[in-house]
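User: I'm preparing a small set of examples for a lab meeting where we compare how different chains pack in three dimensions. I only have the primary sequence for this one, and I'd like the structure in token form so I can line it up with the others. Please keep the answer compact; I'll paste it straight into my notes.
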Amino acid sequence: MLRASEESPRMFDSDFIDFFSRTPWWTVPLLWVPGTIAFFAIGLTQGVPVGLGLVGWLAGFVLWTFTEYSLHRTAFHWVPDASWGERYHFFVHGVHHKWHWDRYRLVMPPAVSLSLCVVFGGLFRLAFGPTWMWPLFSGFVFGYCVYDCMHYAEHHLKVKWKWFVRLRAHHMSHHHNQKYMELRYGVSTMFWDRVFGTMEPSA
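Assistant: Understood. Below is the structure token output for the 203-residue chain.
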């Protein structure tokens, strides 16, 4: 049972709400790998050619990496100048920085990711139309799935692959090195940190 413990401290007074504040990492691929396949299949049934669909899928994946970076840099690190600002930040992202060892608060709860899926799906429909949105959205959602699984792995797995070791060090510096706490926002890639100059402090 996913109950409060030393490893996973209590966030809410209500046992019911606190229980659902925890999410095992495997719920992400369980929910979104089939979702990714389904979204791409919908595009094919609506006449999207396979080759162009794969190009769209890749574009959607890249778009996710930019969205991941942008959200982390802005919304996740934003503390509104209001009486509720600190509390807002804690629930959105501060909890992860405070309890970075908590393996059950490293991925989005399904209720949140499903709600965001509806919002982003609507935006994709407006931007790309009711047919071409599907392969792009499929790649975008798969990018999210990779991001959340990578985030878990960076905190709790000791993979020896050199690329992963560098990426893990990149993310850990964001958590544990005061110099990088407002830098190095990429989790699944360092690319956008390099593009926007957030790899190193300004001289």
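A couple of notes for your slides: Residues 15-154 form one domain. The chain has a mean pLDDT of 90.

User: Perfect, thanks.
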